Predict the structure.
Amino acid sequence: MVAPSSTPQAVLLYAEDDETLAKLTIEHLETQGYQVLHAKNGKEALHVLNQRNVDLVLLDVMMPQMDGLAVAETIRQEDTLTPILFLTAKGQDKDRIAGLKLGADDYIVKPFAMEELLLKIQVFLRRSGHMQQQQARQITFGACLFQIEKRTLTVGGQEQTLTHKEASILRLLCVNVGQVVKRDEILISVWGDNTYFNGRSLDVFMSKLRKLLKPDPQTEIMSVHGVGYRLVTNTPVELS
């Protein structure tokens, strides 16, 4: 079971006209600590958004009165940051592509496994919750200086240039310092999926990052067996 989100009482807008599916999904989400606002159609979803601030939007594509694509387009006219996940039926490739072009962050194909839904929600809440930190130009921790835009890591005066994926992984660990970041979260956030092949690539990248950080005795990337990784440092992490 995916652990509850680290964001306490994150508020989700869930737009779905299938009452049976909606009831089951809402029950699962609430057991994970989320507050769920349910809308039965597109117009109702926009009404809810006008009344409440939400942390993430789940949109069924095929809804009465106003479909999910139209809702997403309306949202993105004023809000470019709140994550939007589309729920689409098999075979709706055109809708999935259209949704991503409108600014949706990802999609899930129905019927979906609850584990997949919970994991994707967790990934995007974590990403959006740290948006401000991720916009920082540099991160200082231990004896390390990580310059994000330049993709350089300086440890003990020695500067190394990181690959895009190495930089993305390190940034994810930095903004969640002291917390366990699940392997699947890293894979979905950096690679886009959690296939076996990408999992082996993650092991290689993590080994490289550990070697780069090794000269700093205050800092370590710890493995949590079967779960993920945690960046541990004896000094505060500073973002600027």
Summary: Residues 1-8, 130-134 have pLDDT under 50 and may be disordered. The longest strand covers residues 84-89.
